[in-house]
């Protein structure tokens, strides 16, 4: 589909100006998608609703991203961008890999801007199979397997998943369930406790 | 409210026989509640719907359990019953505590009967604040703090929460997201890798 493909319904379609196309429109669509998925959940979010929130035509959303699943994948990509994550985690001394991974992960969750799409992912993936599939394909294949490829251990993907599972669980207890004292704990205290676990999974024996 | 309190609407109300009261009715209500919460999620589950599925009057559900939150707490209690969990986890040599905790946790998840309410809890708690509050109050205060009370380490509740977070994350990646190879991994392989982590959190330094 191209931007010239007519939208199914043209009612209220904005005229195509610099405001509704180009890189700014793409960014606005992604921001709107993150907000919609985070606030409404996967089921209740529609391409039409995202387009409306971004002030663009639904056809433009389809043009840039394709289906709702593909908008979802693009919206959460910012939090798992391999070009950002891989150097931040894999660069540096191998014996500090666990600490770098814990620190990167906590920093992404402590920042409200990057936290919102993560919450959307986790909530959506647990209640909607399509979102779970996106998470499996996207995060696991693109991110975990690239980290696993750098590891010199048996079963590297299994080990990377164990590390990821721990960080997902911490995010849920700390940021979603908000269980105390974990929810109010100093991030450095969490990193100090968790880093040796991740280090053992990723490089141990 | 007692069983003699009239239901708001008596249409279709079954006559009170041995079938609709007593311990069997209580068990049927809990089973129906687990199924309803697991299949419909927290929001869409109602006391009326649970009563219908159990073949009893809604007033009887209120009588035994109270509000929807209280039915939820009772329904998930079977998976976190301190009288079952505490001896299984805390009984035995202290240096095998991590392995016992990992083994108990995996066994509860591997059993479809006890897995269903856990899935209901996790899905509901992540999308509904009332369910999150039940999980905080119930699981954390009744279970984690009792385990923490037995630990001879600084910040025992924080450490018990780190252990719990890892197990929650494994459950999500293995049973909900079904990420491979973790989803198909031999339970013993997971226990072997995770037990030293839990042991360090619960008894280390």
From TrEMBL, chains A, B:
Keyword Lipoprotein assigned: no
Molecular function GO terms recorded: DNA-binding transcription factor activity; transcription cis-regulatory region binding
Domain HTH tetR-type: from-to ranges: 23-83
SUPFAM superfamilies assigned: Homeodomain-like, Tetracyclin repressor-like, C-terminal domain
Species of the source: Streptomyces finlayi
Record carries keyword DNA-binding: yes
Alphabetically ordered keywords of this record: DNA-binding
InterPro entries: Homeodomain-like_sf (IPR009057), HTH-type_TetR-like_transc_reg (IPR050109), HTH_TetR (IPR001647), Tet_transcr_reg_TetR-rel_C_sf (IPR036271), TetR_C_16 (IPR041678)
Region span, Disordered: 1-24
Pfam families the record matches: TetR_C_16 (PF17920), TetR_N (PF00440)
Annotation: DNA-binding region: 46-65
Protein name: TetR family transcriptional regulator
């Amino acid at each position: 589909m191209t931007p010239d493909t007519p939208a199914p319904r043209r009612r209220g379609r904005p005229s195509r100006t610099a405001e509704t196309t180009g890189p700014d429109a793409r960014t606005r669509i992604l921001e709107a998608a993150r907000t919609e998925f985070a606030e409404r959940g996967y089921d209740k979010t529609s391409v039409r609703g995202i387009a409306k929130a971004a002030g663009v035509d639904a056809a433009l959303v389809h043009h840039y991203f394709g289906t709702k699943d593909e908008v979802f994948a693009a919206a959460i990509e910012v939090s798992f961008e391999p070009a950002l994550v891989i150097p931040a985690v894999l660069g540096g001394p191998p014996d500090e890999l666990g600490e770098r991974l814990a620190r990167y992960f906590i920093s992404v969750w402590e920042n409200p801007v990057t936290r919102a799409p993560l919450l959307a992912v986790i909530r959506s993936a647990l209640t909607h199979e399509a979102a779970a599939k996106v998470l499996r394909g996207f995060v696991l294949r693109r991110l975990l397997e690239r980290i696993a490829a750098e590891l010199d251990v048996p079963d590297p993907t299994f080990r990377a998943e164990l590390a990821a599972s721990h960080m997902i669980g911490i995010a849920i207890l700390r940021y979603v369930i908000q269980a105390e004292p974990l929810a109010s704990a100093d991030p450095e205290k969490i990193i100090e406790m968790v880093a040796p676990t991740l280090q053992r999974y990723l490089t141990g024996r």
